[in-house]
Amino acid sequence: MSTNHTIPCPKCQSDITFNAQALIAGASFECQTCRSQIKMSSSSMNQAKEVFDKFTDLKNKIASK
Known about the structure:
The chain has 2 helices and 4 strands; from the N terminus they run ββαββα. The protein is of the alpha+beta class. The protein has helices at 20-24, 42-63; strands spanning 4-8, 15-19, 28-30, 37-39. The strands form 2 sheets. A two-stranded antiparallel sheet has the order 1-2. Strands 3-4 form a two-stranded antiparallel ribbon. The protein has one domain. It is globular and about 45 Å long. 42% of the residues lie in helices and 25% in strands.
């Protein structure tokens, strides 16, 4: 499963490509246009990881049918 996604840069609106699993693990990603960075706040990481894991499990169950 590909976990690469894009999000608009909060500063210049260019696309920032990020890996969801790496973002949840604490990585930051940089806008190639203006060098702004996105990063998940540490207070949101556990909740996001739980939701992402549940989503992945559900997707795998559906794919195996």
